[in-house]
Design brief:
With about 280 residues, the protein is α+β, with helices and mostly antiparallel strands. Helices cover about 25% and strands about 25% of the residues. Strands 1-2-3-8-7 form a five-stranded antiparallel β-sheet, with helices on one face. A four-stranded mixed β-sheet has the order 6-12-11-9. Strands 4-5 form a two-stranded antiparallel sheet. About 25% of the residues are buried.
Length: about 280
């Protein structure tokens, strides 16, 4: 991890430039090359001066103890794991729908995926503090694929917020149609999980839309979008009410989804046969 290569600081995570080399290199994904460029993320909490409100922007960055940070990092990785599964559920649904109808959809299907990511643990190897045993965990990091903004310098964008199941973008904004597709994926996820879960906080990079012959949404050829830092919204009945997906998991967003979601052309295409929600 680069000590001076800070990429950015979010609400509770700090991102640094880093490099990853694995002893056994996989054929693809993180660590598939020597000194693979990665984003290294660590969690932090805000330490405010005494008597200062928590909403005040005057704070210093405080580090969690390892015993507190590990469960939080595992939860972040778990969110990405489930987000990939729920997005895959949508493409399974799309495949089945298109195979079952004689008419092709009157729109392009974007190919979007979530970044590759994994947890990295640092271990003591001796020569450190006398109280530290060799082989014990020293630190933990969340490693993520670098998002390439491309030669055109595409902006990192939040397409859908976790408080509203509709696009944050305006119709004239670049990426609005892509945001509509993401709203459609929420509709599918909600229906296919019987109203229990869907992805929110959709954010990342949207590239130019490609013609159907230029990409396949079943592989990594011609991505039209690359996403990161999702949130999983679940009904309170999931996991017996325990919040397994973090503080951004707002149960009210699930219970009000049918009322607040506004169907778009993706949702309304007869080939998908989705129940209409919203006004």
């Amino acid at each position: 991890m680069s000590s001076d290569g800070i990429i950015g600081i979010g609400g509770f995570k700090m991102a640094h430039k880093g490099w990853l080399t694995l002893m056994l290199t996989p054929s693809s994904g993180l660590g598939s090359e020597m000194l693979h460029n990665v984003v290294v993320k660590r969690l932090f909490h805000r330490v405010h001066p005494p008597g200062m409100l928590a909403s005040n922007m005057d704070f210093r960055i405080g580090c969690f103890t390892l015993i507190d940070e590990m469960p939080k990092l595992f939860r972040e990785a778990n969110i990405l794991y489930w987000a990939k599964a729920l997005l895959g559920l949508v493409y399974d649904f799309i495949d089945c729908a298109i195979a079952s109808t004689s008419e092709s959809p009157p729109f392009n299907i974007p190919h979007v995926r979530f970044i590759e990511a994994g947890l990295a643990l640092s271990f003591f190897v001796g020569g450190g503090k006398p109280s530290s045993k060799t082989g014990t965990t020293h630190a933990a990091f969340l490693l993520e694929e670098v998002i390439d903004c491309g030669d055109e310098g595409h902006d990192f964008t939040k397409f859908i917020h976790n408080m509203d199941p509709n696009p944050l973008l305006d119709p004239e904004d670049f990426g609005y149609d892509f945001a509509l597709f993401l709203a459609f994926t929420q509709h599918v996820q909600y229906v296919k999980t019987s109203g229990l879960a869907f992805i929110s906080d959709y954010q990342g990079i949207h590239y130019s839309t490609l013609a159907p012959t230029q990409f396949s949404y079943r592989n990594n050829i011609g991505n039209t979008g690359l996403l990161t830092d999702p949130q999983i919204m679940t009904d309170p009945s999931v996991s017996d009410g325990d919040n397994i997906f973090g503080e951004g998991n707002i149960g009210k967003a699930v219970s009000e989804f049918e009322k607040r979601h506004i169907c778009n052309d993706f949702c309304r295409w007869p080939g998908f046969a989705l129940e209409a929600f919203g006004a």
